Amino acid sequence: MTPPPARRRRTGAERSAPARNLLRRGSVRRAQAITTYGVGSLVAVDQESFIVSGLDGADEHWSLDESPRIHERRLARLLGVQHFRLPPASDDSSRDGLRVRRFPLMHSCPECDDLRRHRDFNPPPGRSVCGTCEVDLVPSRFVIACEAGHLDEFPYWHWVHRAAGRGITTAGQCGGTLKLRSTGRSSSLRSILVSCTCGVPEASMEGSFRKRALKDLGLRCRGTRPWLGTSVPAHTCALTPRTLQRGSSTVWQPVLKSALSIPPWSDGRADPLAEHWDRLRRLNSREEVEMILNYVFEGGSPVPIDEVMTLLDAEREEDPNGEDTPTFDHRYRALRNKEYERLRSGNDEREHSRNEQFICETPLGDSTALHPLGVTGPMLVKKLREVRALKAFTRLTDPDSTTESNEVPLSDSDMRWLPAMEVHGEGVFLRLDEDRLGSWEKAPAVAARVERMRSAHQRTLDQRAADASRVAPSPATPRMVLLHTLAHVLINEWSLEAGYPAAALRERLYAADDMAGILVYTATSDSAGSLGGLVAQGEPDNLARTLHSAVHRTSWCSSDPLCVESEASGTGGTNLAACHACVMLPETSCEHNNILLDRALLVGTPEDPHLGFFADALEQ
Questions:
Q1: Residue 571 dihedral angles phi and psi, to the nearest 5°
Q2: How many CB atoms lie within 10 A of CB 618?
Q3: pTM of the model
Q4: What is d(CA 89, CA 98) in angstroms, rounded to the nearest whole number?
Q5: How far, in Å, CA of 400 to CA of 462, rounded?
């Protein structure tokens, strides 16, 4: 990572060296620049804290020479961009890397207890130490943020002077110097004390995290966006900010969208036309398309016109039906529907070249062994490619509970690309028998359990959102919870039997009125991605044996009877019979952050053993 070049006299590490002599501060992996340390996030490096700069700006933009293009037309169309770019590497081989800015600027000295902006300590160039005491400065532990995504310094001056005079509204009018110390008596906020040399009473940080704490001070969000730089004007914002720990997960949460590369886009032949698809889609005839291609590519189109027309027809097929102005959710659902259809129909390897990135074939074995389990249509996904893009980010609110208007963009201007990563792997796709599933869903006991989870999840979404009336409904349905829990159980089982670490496996759920399937796949950038072992688990005999073992293993948890008899578990009661000892997974493996899980829907409960979809398998 690299701080941006300074625009004025440098007074230390807050301002970096010129572009020809950039100052480095640690490194992150490319995947982390999408999932953990993306644009607008805070990253701690040694004793310092930085915020990752936006995609555009005079001196903060990414070095495009170190950000290779990647293409995934279906996802690019969904997100309204032309292509994607890998984040720049930040290792020793990188000339530039990710640009960052120092944030928060408020620091304290553990020796003299001064609390002030970083530059006011007069640190030596390239170091973050107190110019007087020569000890490492400590970045402020507290920041403030609002649901609109704005981020700012904690108002220490207003906090300590709140009882001395509400009429004073400008920090520094008293002429004193802020001090910060800890009594060391406990780790609570009561032990952190802020004072001012002007003589006002010392105040602890206790109560600063109350929802109305800053509103009671008469403070409103200033609309600051430090990741875009000081030259970018602040947005007007009428929301009340809230105090957060600098390292809290709610300070930055990514909005990630992904897509599998499926035919006819999965062989890469259409990539040269990436910048022209929006224009070609508006044309009505083959002659118009051919004329535009001949004009754009003077030497002739790099893709035969017949293939171009096929691609345009395939793209129009993903348009949601019955929607005059389809929402983002409708378009994303259409993308998933197309993947589901392709996973069901397959894509034989013998019919394609080596460049084909999606190979999905029917197992050689007899699938009748799976019928008693209510499982059908297993497919061996021998080769797949997934592109995961960072669409935006949120603060304070759950990404699953927000609408597009609540998401914070990665730049201040319209960008024709987004940061993304591509991963390759393999997987197993399976479906549940629709007739058996339909009968099971109608059981009153099943509906009652799922309704408890759905209500708890909806309540949590409403509480976290700035405007509860615009929150999307909870996706919890009997079908979705069953498929989600089954995917977790399979991942746990394969991590034991097939030797894959659970963090190297991921789930992809296809749960809707017309879909009932799961894809468990390896999609990593390391050697655990495509070893062939997972595909072998998809052969019917192996899969039946795995399902029997997984169901029997899931019928008992080391936390029982507390786990299976739990009335609510997880964040806000969004789980029932689910804990870290039975079905929960590493967060990187789960699409829904380990919520909406209930193993009782698989195996039943002691009071109602036939509640589970796989209850009959336990009797075999």
A1: -65, 120
A2: 16
A3: 0.87
A4: 7
A5: 11
